[in-house]
């Protein structure tokens, strides 16, 4: 707290006194204009001296309310010869030089609080900052910051800390929630030392623009084997979608045999939609195994903005990416058509159909990894997605991290 000099206190008191005298003199002139004009004319100083004298005499005699004081002034105005007030300083005009305040000080420092977003647009999970500027508030004072949705004041994030200097920077991590909309905006509100401040900016989440489906072609050769991959990839800002289509050359078939068994005779067996069964199993093994998060995101797989990689397989009658047959052996039932894949009935392992589609996506065999999907197992390896990862970084001009997602029970059994 700043001190105030005695002479300054005296001058402040005199200033209040002059204001009161002038106010009462004006009111008296309004209600008793003829008497004031007759006695004082235009002499404001004389009227001020009269009012001041009456106030001195009335101290302790009347209630300190305007009505009582004006009543006393009216009575004295009717009586002649009010004694002049013993003035120590002039009531009218500027104060004498020795009473002027040349270096005014305040009895206590003025306190102000302000806040603002440092970044007004970032991706989910990426570090952002809020600056809090305080004046007259001691270091170490507790600060509470809230990030509020503009539409309903619901709290997106809370930050607690203490002031350190005039400007204190606080870190926070914007986290997307499923209840939010892409157009939602947020404001910052700060409390400290019984003060409340609202920031002027609006914060919004950075949302990637969609990327339309783009055809991709792969031509691979491995010793005596060769195959081509053809698929489409797109990104809608929420997920990465890989699509490919197949035309089955002999679609009307009976139910496939259990894994590892020779199929039974087809007589008496009702035809089943084999294409639907293949589609369901392939998508189960390939979709949602991995996803992308921003490389700067500290939340990792716990981030609500993970971009899952989803696969979709469609069986079509025309306009296909690949042709395929299905059967017991590896011999094509139609020698006039060279298919690019075969879906055997007698699968040698549970995920063999997904293995076949992996080849259609350009993934080579991995005989040195028998547990992997592209060996003879069911485990989806992240290396299979290297082409997808490069495409994602090139198309978005951002750094991404490929992370495994939670596995449903039994998928890798």
Rounded radius of gyration (Å): 43 Å
What percent strand? 25-35%
Which percent bin holds the helix content?
A: 10-25%
Number of helices, where a helix is a run of at least 4 consecutive DSSP H or I residues: 7
Please tell me about this protein's structure.
- The chain has 413 residues and is of the alpha+beta class.
- The chain has three domains: 6-99, no CATH class; 112-205, Macroglobulin (MG2) domain (Immunoglobulin-like, Sandwich), CATH 2.60.40.1930; 211-404, no CATH class.
- It is built from seven helices and 17 strands.
- It has helices at residues 6-31, 33-40, 44-58, 66-78, 274-286, 352-360, 386-396, and strands spanning 112-117, 121-122, 128-135, 142-149, 155-162, 167-172, 186-192, 195-198, 204-205, 211-222, 225-235, 240-248, 290-294, 307-315, 322-327, 341-344, 400-404.
- The strands form four sheets. Strands 10, 11, 12, 13, 14, 15, 16 and 17 form an eight-stranded mixed sheet that branches. The chain has a four-stranded antiparallel sheet with strand order 5-4-7-8, with no helix packed on it.
- α1 crosses α3.
- The longest helix has 26 residues, at 6-31.
